[in-house]
């Protein structure tokens, strides 16, 4: 099992520069890769460049970047630009994001998301490996001047079409806050899709919230991330089966996030992540490994644990 660390700007009252502190700590502790997450606050390529300035050796992955917002060349150029400035290996992660972000924040249509993901992944895969001197895109008079960024192409997937895209084009498939049971099911789908595509299956990673010996503030922060998934297809049944059906019903009825947060007991935080004392978290890691995850990308709770130091330190020591 490999471990990486997600440095993402939370859309709450967390310090805007918190991702830089998380990434710097992770690098100091010896984690080999930092993810620069994209969101309403941070552009992932800018964040990745900034992380490169406060870390010494960690590889960088920008994204997942919504494919409805950038063309393939812009994505590949972004990764190559970060690599040129930082001197690091840089990968790019692609995803479809949500209508709330693509249309609600950026004002762009989120049309044919699965098809756009497939088209973009196929194009970006080739562009990421094109050497200097070649046309920036086929038929263009402009030539590439930057070296390839050297990192993997990651595709965030959950639905069958996205999994097929990851199987056909990606070096790594990414899941987001899943249970071990979900990971096992999605792993099987990935293996089957790769067999149909005639490829070796990409590695399988998951972003998982993590909090070792959490303070109450840490639990609340993790639960806020869970709230957003209560209405996502495939998750409602998981939380209902875990005993949190009341919150699922409230979410289906349009309840606001604060109401949903009050309806979720602290135990819900451990349903789709690594939460609890160190022995509990170790057992949970073993469950994810047995389910087929190759990598856990830790999203450390930082409320009550600045930069996630307690969690990242404890997990680095135990892994």
From TrEMBL:
PANTHER family named among the record's database cross-references: 5,10-METHYLENETETRAHYDROMETHANOPTERIN REDUCTASE, PTHR43244
Entries under SUPFAM superfamilies matching the protein: Bacterial luciferase-like
Species: Streptomyces coacervatus
Descriptive protein name: LLM class F420-dependent oxidoreductase
Limits of the Luciferase-like domain: 3-294
Source organism superkingdom: Bacteria
InterPro entries given in the database record: F420-G6PD/mer, F420_Rv3093c, Luciferase-like_dom, Luciferase-like_sf
Database matches in Pfam families: Bac_luciferase
């Amino acid at each position: 099992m490999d471990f990486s660390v997600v440095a993402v700007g939370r859309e709450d009252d967390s310090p805007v520069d918190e991702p830089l502190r998380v990434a710097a700590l992770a690098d100091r502790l010896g984690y080999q890769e930092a993810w620069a997450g994209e969101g309403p606050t941070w552009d992932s390529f800018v964040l990745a460049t900034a992380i490169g300035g406060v870390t010494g050796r960690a590889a960088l992955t920008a994204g997942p970047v919504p494919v409805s917002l950038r063309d393939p060349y812009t994505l590949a150029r972004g990764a190559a630009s970060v690599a040129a400035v930082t001197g690091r290996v840089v990968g790019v992660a692609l995803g479809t994001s949500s209508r709330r972000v693509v249309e609600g924040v950026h004002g762009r249509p989120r049309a044919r998301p699965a098809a756009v993901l497939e088209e973009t992944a196929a194009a970006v895969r080739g562009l990421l490996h094109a050497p200097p001197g070649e046309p920036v895109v086929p038929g263009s008079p402009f030539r590439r001047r930057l070296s390839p960024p050297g990192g993997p192409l990651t595709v965030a997937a959950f639905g069958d079409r996205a999994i097929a895209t990851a199987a056909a084009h990606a070096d790594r498939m990414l899941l987001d806050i899943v249970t071990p049971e979900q990971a096992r099911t999605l792993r099987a789908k990935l293996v089957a899709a790769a067999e149909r595509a005639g490829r070796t299956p990409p590695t399988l990673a998951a972003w998982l919230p993590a909090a070792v010996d959490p303070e109450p503030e840490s639990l609340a922060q993790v639960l806020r991330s869970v709230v957003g998934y209560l209405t996502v297809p495939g998750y409602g049944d998981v939380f209902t089966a875990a005993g949190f059906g009341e919150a699922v019903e409230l979410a289906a009825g349009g309840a606001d996030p604060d109401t949903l947060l009050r309806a979720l007991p602290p135990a819900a935080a451990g349903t789709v992540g690594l939460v609890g004392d160190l022995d509990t978290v170790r057992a949970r890691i073993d469950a994810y490994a047995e389910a087929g995850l190759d990598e856990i990308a830790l999203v450390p709770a930082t409320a009550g644990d600045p930069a996630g130091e307690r969690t990242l330190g404890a997990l680095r020591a135990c892994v």
